[in-house]
Amino acid sequence: MKEGFDRHDLVFLSKEGRRQALAGVGAEAVRRYGEETIGKIIETVPGIVRYQGEEEEPWLALGFSWHEKTDGQRIRIATRVEAQRVFRRVTPWELRVEPFLEMSDWGDSLREEARPVYRACEQIICLLAERGVSAGIFGSLALELATGLPYVTETSDLDLIVRWDPVRLTEEVYEACRNLAGGVRLDLEVYFPGRGSVKAAEWFSGEDAVLVKGYRRTEIVERGELEEAE
User: Fold this and answer.
1) At CB < 8 A and 24+ separation, what contacts does 27-36 make?
2) Share above pLDDT 90 across residues of the chain, in percent, rounded to a whole number
3) Number of Cβ atoms within 10 Å of the Cβ of 73
4) How far apart are the first and last CA of the chain?
5) What is the mean pLDDT of residues 145-158?
6) SS3 of 207, please?
7) If residue 229 lies in a helix (H) or strand (E), which one and from where to where?
8) Which of 53, 113, 115, 228 is deepest in the core (most CB within 10 A)?
């Protein structure tokens, strides 16, 4: 793993890093969105560390997502940069909604469409913390927290990731989180250090083998092998 990076990390690039990111965008994306628009996105928001596949050193595969939509879809761009061009990295576990809620009188002045996601996030992370489970934030809410731009909409999922804990992270806890989510769709991932993450819905389905999305590979793994992970 390059310099400790992992999927869902947000990375802020140096000037040279942004230049490399723009140069690494595929021709089809440039044709569709235009170099000026892509340049503005890369200049404005952090990149998202994505699945690396066979990407070789020193390159780091990134994705960029813009809060505005084109033809009803959010602009998403794939590219790569040299890992050394990252000057700041923010992991899902470093992001918190409480400061934003406090600044907006605990959500009263937030955009109406964003309130359900913020409220659900605060309540679920609080519930998990009470049970000793550490949770991180990724997806649209993570980008909004990191940039202040309006990524969260009325159709946004709440994307959370929790580290595997065989004692504290139980199906009962997962169901309690789903109940707190209310009308917000909860996309919870269970993270197994060194291997990757599994959708909580799949993990708690009881299947003998599950799909693990890792930093460099995606694979089907026997449940018992993951349950033994430290």
Assistant:
1) 29/77, 29/78, 33/70, 33/75, 33/77
2) 84
3) 7
4) 18
5) 95
6) coil
7) none
8) 115
